[in-house]
TrEMBL record:
<keyword id="KW-1003">Cell membrane</keyword>
<keyword id="KW-1133">Transmembrane helix</keyword>
<keyword id="KW-0472">Membrane</keyword>
<keyword id="KW-0812">Transmembrane</keyword>
<feature type="transmembrane region" description="Helical">
    <location>
        <begin position="36"/>
        <end position="54"/>
    </location>
</feature>
<feature type="transmembrane region" description="Helical">
    <location>
        <begin position="12"/>
        <end position="30"/>
    </location>
</feature>
<dbReference type="Pfam" id="PF01899">
    <property type="entry name" value="MNHE"/>
</dbReference>
<protein>
    <submittedName>
        <fullName>Na+/H+ antiporter subunit E</fullName>
    </submittedName>
</protein>
<dbReference type="GO" id="GO:0005886">
    <property type="term" value="C:plasma membrane"/>
</dbReference>
<dbReference type="InterPro" id="IPR002758">
    <property type="entry name" value="Cation_antiport_E"/>
</dbReference>
<dbReference type="GO" id="GO:0008324">
    <property type="term" value="F:monoatomic cation transmembrane transporter activity"/>
</dbReference>
<comment type="similarity">
    <text>Belongs to the CPA3 antiporters (TC 2.A.63) subunit E family.</text>
</comment>
């Protein structure tokens, strides 16, 4: 098999197939069995555009890592949301507002960008400032560093560093 054919096959397996299936499932969840005449051309256009615009910038991408990250993110969002609601509704309002600096453990790249963006979506935390491999985090409770470390591991699972550099 030629190198071009292997690259095309790898791209199909690592990009077009999982993203296409994800988009089709998303359409099915929203519209059911209706409108596939509209959805299929749209999915093809989105696949081509995403490959052209995004794929070169993503580098290494792990669909299994994305699944693990998604499950972790959803579970932590529910648990964190319940915790924030309890703290806000409790008569004593046991909020422990504080800022904490976090030093990254992995190399700079897409995984770090995902961590910074995702941390702000997690209930009770906010990425405030990023400078010199350090992130300033605002938190309403507990040790934000431990939560950020765990989230960073999942983000590095989505975009693993396969260069051989220590992470």
């Amino acid at each position: 098999m030629s190198a071009d054919r292997k690259a095309t096959s790898g791209t199909f397996k690592s990009h077009f197939l999982p993203v296409g299936i994800l988009l089709a499932l998303f359409w099915y969840a929203l519209a059911g069995d209706q409108g596939w005449w509209f959805a299929l051309p749209g999915i093809v256009v989105v696949l081509l555009l995403s490959h052209w615009l995004i794929q070169p910038r993503l580098g290494n991408f792990s669909p299994l890592g994305l699944l693990r990250f998604s499950l972790y993110f959803l579970s932590r969002s529910v648990v964190g949301g319940l915790d924030v609601a309890w703290r806000a509704l409790h008569p004593a309002m046991p909020l422990q507002l504080h800022y904490q600096e976090y030093s990254f453990h992995g190399p700079d790249g897409t995984a770090r960008t995902l961590l910074i963006a995702t941390l702000s979506l997690m209930p009770g935390t906010l990425s405030v400032n990023y400078r010199d491999d350090r992130l300033l985090i605002h938190s309403i409770a507990g040790n934000a560093e431990q939560a950020a470390e765990e989230l960073e591991r999942y983000c590095r699972g989505v975009f693993p560093d396969r260069s051989g550099a220590p992470s």
